[in-house]
């Protein structure tokens, strides 16, 4: 039996179209299925790792906001500074979004933030006369403190590029 090239190409196009439509449907449905989970996980992780007060009105998970990254957006975000600046605002923004590396999330089961998007923000950086800064809000894990005391060779300083964040 001989099948024509027209029939074969139509079958290939049909299955390709169905596959693409299925993937797009999943990309739309996955964020809709877990809306409350994202907000609760962000607040839980922030309370564990930050020595500050973090508030936001709502969170959103999307594949299409900053494609191809999976984007977690926090609306009306406000964050206070660390001690002794606990009553002062460190960051206030209409929206802060984190681009998550999807490949690492799927294959390594690791959340790696590779992009940061900030919209209409007020960033208030302060340092007092003792050298204490309001942006020292990260709580270092205990195992990192032990590594610093054991380490005999200093680490090479890493360059920080602002253009990687924007």
Provide keyphrases for this structure.
alpha+beta, 5-stranded antiparallel β-sheet, 5 strands, elongated, disordered C terminus
Characterization of the model:
- This protein has 166 residues and is α+β, with helices and mostly antiparallel strands.
- It has 4 helices and 5 strands; from the N terminus they run ααββββαβα.
- It has helices spanning 5-33, 35-49, 102-107, 142-150; strands at 54-55, 58-62, 70-80, 89-100, 113-123.
- Strands 1, 2, 3, 4 and 5 form a 5-stranded antiparallel beta sheet that branches.
- β3 (70-80) and β4 form a beta hairpin.
- It is elongated and about 85 Å long.
- Residues 147-166 have low confidence and may be disordered.
Rough shape? elongated
Tell me the structural class.
alpha+beta
User: Roughly what is the average pLDDT, rounded to an integer?
Assistant: 77
Give a quick account of the main beta sheet: strands, pairing sense, barrel closure: 5 strands, antiparallel
Number of strands: 5
Helix content: 25-40%
Beta-sheet strand percentage? 15-25%
Q: Could you state the oligomeric state of the chains shown?
A: single chain
Number of distinct helices = 4
Give the SSE order as H and E letters.
HHEEEEHEH
